[in-house]
Amino acid sequence: MTKEKIKSWTIKAGIRALRTAAQAVLTLTGADMVNILTLDWVQIAGVAAGMAFISLLMSIVDLPEMKLEAV
């Protein structure tokens, strides 16, 4: 892999991981069903970080955005 492809993969995989983490936080907070001040933010951050890490691992196997770039 060239430096350009590595840089492109890193950016795209990072964006995908951040989106996954944001989705986890939104899911766990339940929109407006709970009081936002009483949430266990440490646990929510842990779940979001875990999901972001899993997203990065999945990106190692296959990152569809890279296939689009090759076309």
Could you please describe the fold and organization of this structure?
This protein is mainly α. It is 77% helix and 0% strand. It contains three helices and no strands. The chain is elongated.
Summarize the model shown.
The protein is an all-alpha fold and 71 residues long. The protein has helices at 3-29, 41-61, 64-70.
The quaternary organization reads as single chain
First-to-last CA distance: 16 Å
Give the C-alpha Rg: 15 Å
Chain-averaged pLDDT = 84
Would you spell out the secondary-structure blueprint of this structure?
Blueprint: H1 3-29, H2 41-61, H3 64-70
Helix pairs in contact: 1-2
Descriptors for this entry?
elongated, 77% helix, 71 residues
